[in-house]
What does this fold into?
Amino acid sequence: MNSERTRLAALYGGLLVMAGVLLLAIVYVLVSENVYAGIVTAVAPAVPTARPAAGVAAGVAAPALPTSDWAQTAVIEPGQYAVAQKVSTAAGDAALSQLLTVSGVSLAVYSALSVALAWWMAGRVLRPVGVITARARRLSGSNLHERIALKAPPGELKELADTFDGMLDRIQQLVAARQRFAANAAHELRTPLAVQRAAAEIGLADDPPPEKVAWIRDKLIDTAADSERLIEGLLLLAVSDEGLRRRERVALDETVTTVTGALGAEAKERDITVEVTARPVTVEGDAVLLDHLVHNLVANALRHNHPGGTVTVRVGPDGLEVANTGPRVDPATVPLLFEPFRRARARRHAPGEGAGLGLSIVASVARAHGGDVGARANPGGGLTARVTLPARAPEAGAQDVPTRLPAARAQ
It folds into this structure.
């Protein structure tokens, strides 16, 4: 920061010195033009009249006098004017010499004061930058709560400090979320391992009968499948958080129709009606990630429902909306459902329940595509989730005709 302060001080000081030099030059020019005429006008009346000097012919016109009020009314002899002219020249030269001396001393003092003032001003201007730099050097995971909180009038530096504080807020939230994610992931991964170990150590002790061995084998297989789904979910979440590596045109309405059809068997098993209204819409993105987005939304609506309930899926240029019936959801907990390992209800260890990553993957995929996701609790129970994605204009000649599946049991 010292180099920046030196450059700013040199700039400010140089400008002030140049302004002082220019001011003194203007004063000198204006004074030098009028000083002789002013002295002649003031001195001439006090000069005694003398005879014309030898060689000066009588009747020779005197030099022109300054056009002043006194010169227009006074009558001056030529000899008197010559003496006044000599006196005024000597006095003017002395006055200008004195003016130059005083101006030079004043300019030197002014320059020194200007440089000192510029140095002080540069330090005051750069002080917030120094505070920001020092705070940035001290930042670590243990003091992310500290803020600059610069108290200054509105301006560029105040805006810079506030922007830095806002950046620290986002970093603190991100670090806290990552820490929660790591802790929850460790817990989720440790749980199936504990179940497997308990089943192996306790269930297989004392030479168990074949029926019990078969039950333990099925339990271990189910637990391994849950672990596999969890790891796949973590990998998918990591991939979507990195952003899109490739983009292609994806017909989101066709993706929704395909995914809901694939989940028809699960909907039939759970005795849930699925209604789909799909209007043609095309987005730029990754087809695989968008398929996971739709699948997780619809699967979440099916698994957090009750027998005889309904799931309504709507897709169009305004986005994708999935609503379901089911148990009531506390509105305060709705924003938290899009965080990893968050569940509306406690873990039940039901087959295919998932690891609490479904909606967090939806949010991550939506962000990767430049979209947004939100949800609200339905008054009668259940949840309505909505995803908005930047849609492309339809192809020329394409008809925007909705495709509506009948409100019947999904087959």
In short: The chain has nine helices and ten strands. Residues 78-138 form the longest helix (61 residues). The CA atoms of residues 250 and 283 lie 5 Å apart. Strands lie at 248-251, 273-278, 282-285, 310-316, 319-324, 372-377, 383-388, 391-392, 403-404, 408-409.
